[in-house]
Specification:
Layout (H helix, E strand, L loop, with lengths): L2 H18 L2 H23 L1 H48 L1 H6 L3 H53 L5 H23 L1 H19 L21 E8 L10 E8 L13
Antiparallel strand pairs: 1-2
Helix pairs in contact: 1-3, 1-7, 2-3, 2-6, 3-5, 3-6, 3-7, 5-6
Amino acid sequence: NSSGAICNQLSSNAAVIQDMVGSRLGVICETLSMSAIGVLLGLFYNWQLTIIIFIPFVILLIAFIIQIRLSSWLKSQSDLIYCQASTLAVEVLTNMRTVKQLSMENEVLRQYSNMIDQVLKMSWRPDVLLATIYGLYLMMESLTLGLLYWRALVLVENNELDMSNVVMISAFAMFALESLKVVQMLAQRMGASLAAAHAFFDLFDRIPTIDNGSNKGQELTNFRGETEFDQVKFVYPSRPTVLVLNKLQLSIKSGQRIALVGMFK
């Protein structure tokens, strides 16, 4: 709920969503439709060769969906950590003088560095999996074309298929696989955009825990607003041997204004 976390969400998520809308979204719809049309045309010419294309096509499509979901999860988890880091940075900048007086610069830097390290430690495994999926894309294309040409030669030798149809189906295979590869290159951005859009809806639909406009709850009938300090001691954590307040005894009446004035040591 801090201003730093909210500003970080609004700025980063808006940029990620804007990155995917428009021309890139049109490219995704175009390539998916082109891949589907290529498979349908292949079925029209020869179903045996089209099945060879269709099986890796489905495998790559499943890998594509996994890649989107993995990227979306990684974006949402990293955003949580980045929000905490942004909150810490805003608090430090707002209370810079206090941080300096308490000599907490190294501690704040350590906390911020640990948050950034959490993102790096969390992301290396998904990155390895995403790289493996990309390698699967490259491997499946070569294996599919090799198997397609082998089966086409067998059908041509058995006079079950014309050479012209082989050329057409091979073109459709390249057509479908290359189109799917274009979409795969945008899978990480698609996953990040979905996570950003989900975070936007959660932010706008969130119901606050404390509703300051509600009239429900218990009302205090005998509230006088008096405050009393009884034998209060206070020290700074960085200087535990220096007593700032020692056995403070103070009673503040309702409506009374009290100022504590002293020299900082």
